[in-house]
């Protein structure tokens, strides 16, 4: 999977300037919300907490944050899917953030993962922020990495375990 991890330029995705101010087009707003999701999840881990999976639903200029608890990953994904399905007619885009891992050629790395999609997209996209945990210390990579396509929750039916494994 290392070959599939595409290093995104810092011009496109940097951790500076995550505040949403002024007039933004929908693509700029989505970029800012993606960065906000990564920032919030990173802060939670750095403060010694754990990242409860959450979505940020984008309705015009309005944002709604929802947490998704569950016994396992499938229940959290299903909770997010149901939330997005219920708001489908109202929202333009969503961001789904969770703590997970990516499998590289010969190792598994912890990662904060954001999946996102805009209404009308055939599929979503997934990004990862890799980190290393060493005792009480966390070290986050400086860049985000593309994980490629992810299934979109817009108009989706129940998420299967096979679809979860694809991400």
Write the topology of this structure.
Blueprint: E1 6-7, H1 26-46, E2 54-59, E3 62-67, H2 73-86, E4 93-103, E5 108-118, E6 124-134, E7 137-140, E8 145-150, H3 161-166
Antiparallel strand pairs: 1-8, 2-3, 2-4, 4-5, 5-6, 6-7, 6-8
What does it look like?
- There is one protein chain.
- By secondary structure, the chain is an alpha+beta fold.
- The chain has one domain (2-7, 23-166).
- It is 25% helix and 34% strand.
- Strands 1, 2, 3, 4, 5, 6, 7 and 8 form an eight-stranded antiparallel β-sheet that branches.
- A hairpin with a 2-residue loop joins strand 2 and strand 3.
- Residues 1-24 have low confidence and may be disordered.
Please give a handful of descriptors for the protein shown.
34% strand, globular, alpha+beta
Write down the secondary-structure element order: EHEEHEEEEEH
Q: List low-pLDDT spans.
A: 1-24
Largest sheet: 8 strands, antiparallel
Number of helices: 3
In short:
The protein is an alpha+beta fold. The chain is built from 3 helices and 8 strands, in the order βαββαβββββα.
């Amino acid at each position: 999977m290392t070959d599939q991890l595409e290093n995104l330029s810092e011009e496109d995705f940097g951790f500076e300037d995550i505040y949403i101010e002024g007039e933004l087009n929908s693509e700029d707003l989505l970029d800012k919300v993606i960065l906000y999701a990564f920032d919030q999840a990173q802060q939670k881990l750095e403060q010694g907490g754990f990242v409860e999976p959450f979505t940020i639903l984008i309705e015009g200029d309005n944002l709604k944050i929802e947490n998704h608890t569950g016994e396992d990953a499938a229940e959290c994904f299903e909770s997010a899917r149901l939330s997005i399905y219920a708001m489908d007619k109202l929202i333009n885009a969503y961001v789904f953030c969770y703590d997970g891992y990516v499998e590289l050629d010969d190792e598994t790395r912890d990662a904060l993962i954001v999946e996102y999609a805009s209404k009308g997209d055939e599929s979503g996209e997934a990004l990862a922020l890799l980190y290393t945990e060493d005792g009480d210390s966390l070290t986050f990579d400086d860049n985000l990495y593309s994980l490629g396509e992810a299934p979109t929750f817009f108009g989706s039916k129940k998420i299967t375990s096979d679809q979860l494994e694809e991400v």
